[in-house]
From TrEMBL, chains A, C:
Annotated THIF-type NAD/FAD binding fold domain residues: 16-249
CDD domains named among the record's database cross-references: ThiF_MoeB_HesA_family
InterPro entries, sorted: ThiF/MoeB/HesA, ThiF_NAD_FAD-bd, Ubiquitin-activating_enz
Protein name: HesA/MoeB/ThiF family protein
UniProtKB/TrEMBL annotation, chains B, D:
Organism: Thermithiobacillus plumbiphilus
Coiled-coil residues: none
Keyword Nucleotide-binding: yes
Top-rank taxon, per record: Bacteria
Protein name from the UniProt record: Molybdopterin synthase sulfur carrier subunit
């Protein structure tokens, strides 16, 4: 548990008043958010709401990792981008919009994470939020988070399905959940399967909220559970995860 | 009886949300249940084929292929998804 | 059921490609969204994500009703506003940001709804989304929607609790659910009770998604059910609503 | 036994998520159950006081005060909320 003692300034007490009012947050919880270093992987359907709401909530240092440029087909679900942003770097446009809302967030932008750069980028953060769009990146982040003992907050979408899980060092890891890399043809991301914009927003906000709960160490935070959300019939299921002793990443 | 829930693409590809069935003879594990479902033919063979990555929970807890299945259990099949 | 036959233009086919790809939407569903007229009441914690995602999704005509000015304490949960917007009209800033993302949406701004103006404003829309912050407005919208036979999509927040319900003409109405106007002291909105930003985002996106499902007439849309969401333990409950035969608004 | 669930502010003010209790004697309706709970004193008297607006669902369906309560039922109490 990290103890945070930096007192909040007057402007911060005003800005964050509605968060501080919650007994689950308070001034000490807000100070903890202001001291947190969070990396958001992907600046797409999930990454946009995750980073926007984390920045607005007062996360102290926010990393944004993506190499994509804004495309017209992104606009219905990546609502912070404008038509004028088409063709420009997503992380740069996202950085600018977060700073408009909250100039005190320290933002770092990074290119897409690869086996070459990921370890060094992740080193600088305490919490890693995965909003990437492919299994290779998910495996990569998981392996590095396990090695560097970082908590990974993982969100994923397909059509009307959302999945949310938190992988903490020592608990079941992403590869305990997904033991084999799925065949590319079998999987449908937003590009292949289609998506309604607010579906991405809903899951991204849920992921941001769960990230705050993790940083605040709320007793009710998600732990060794996978949340399955079905937006068609508005149902959610919670499934207990189990550490695979034979897992090549986190097993004995 | 056992209750089976299908999620995400499985639900869409099989056209079924959930079903209650008698526990078939010779089915005692997740693997033998999957073999039984594959045996239904048509989409079932493909959706639960050898290449498919299928996550399985029995009574709300994830299990591997060797996990046991017994009368009264609720079994959920879901695919990992990856869109962001 | 309204049949929409306007063909989509090429730019629309590109922009909305990921939505059109869904069999639940398709070109005809997208055309239906483009023909819809939706009023969003409140431009706060719920109204901001609701209107942003509905505009981006291609709702044809979007009304925004609120008289508030942007305040510093709004910024953590109303992420689309910037520090420079403080003191300016919320609906005007929100209108500008939605048009940045999607210039083809027709946006109308309105002052806060009151017993004097509400009926005339609501007249122009087919779907009313309630993200207001007080019971008086909720009662008012409900009564007018019942009279004008408009569907009301209602969202409400308190701390870590979210409530979402859809009131269609002929079904149970909001006043069947809330039979007596609660005492002001007993209720905690975001101002009195506190709120984490992404909690508002999550419920607002859920409300936007449910609005799209209603417009698309998906068979799985919310009907005569109240959704209770608890963000602390990530649980949701669905409760069947019942028409109160003695209801002063919709009873016999 | 009956199961009672408390939501939102009720949960916070009473410090309890849910409980299973024997159906008390003389309790056959939502109103008499509320009177029984009020009788616990302390916070209970205030939270479920005469001024309180309490929504009630029995077995996942909303009911009015006259609605019946029987052994095996799940009763949920929740307040309407209004924040936007």
């Amino acid at each position: 548990m990290v103890t945070v003692s930096t007192p909040l300034g007057n402007a911060q007490l005003v800005r964050y008043a509605r968060q501080i009012l919650l007994e689950e947050v308070g001034e000490s919880g807000q100070a903890r958010l202001l001291a947190a270093k969070v990396l958001v992987v992907g600046a797409g359907g999930l990454g946009v709401p995750v980073a926007s709401y984390l920045g607005a909530a007062g996360i102290g240092m926010l990393g944004l990792a993506d190499s994509d440029l804004v495309d017209r087909t992104n606009l219905p679900r990546q609502v912070i981008y404008s038509e004028l942003d088409i063709g420009y770097s997503k992380v740069q446009r996202l950085e600018a919009r977060i700073l408009d809302n909250n100039p005190e967030v320290q933002i770092m932008t990074h290119p897409r994470l690869t086996p070459e750069n990921a370890s060094a980028v992740i080193e600088a953060y305490d919490w890693i939020v995965d909003g990437s769009d492919n299994f290779q990146t998910r495996y990569l982040l998981n392996a590095i988070c396990a090695r560097q003992k970082k908590t990974l907050i993982s969100g994923a979408l397909s059509r009307f399905t959302g999945q949310l899980a938190v992988f903490r060092p020592g608990d079941a890891c992403y590869q305990c959940l997904v033991a084999r890399l799925p065949n590319r043809d079998a999987t449908q991301g937003c590009v292949e399967g289609g998506i309604l914009g607010p579906m991405a927003g809903l899951l991204g906000c849920w992921q941001a909220l769960e990230t705050l709960k993790q940083i605040l160490a709320l007793s009710s935070r998600l732990q060794e559970e996978l949340l399955l959300f079905d937006a068609l019939n508005n149902s959610s299921h919670r499934i207990r995860m189990r550490k695979d002793q034979a897992c090549p990443v986190c097993g004995e | 009886m056992i209750k089976i829930l299908y999620f995400a693409q499985f639900r869409e590809q099989l056209g079924i949300d959930s079903e209650q069935i008698q526990l078939p003879r010779h089915v005692h594990t997740v693997e033998t249940l999957l073999a039984y479902l594959r045996g239904r033919g048509g989409n079932w063979t493909e959706v639960f084929g050898a290449d498919a990555v299928v996550c399985v929970a029995v009574n709300h807890a994830m299990v591997a292929g060797q996990g046991t299945v017994a009368v009264g259990d609720e079994i959920a099949f879901f695919p990992p998804v990856t869109g962001g």
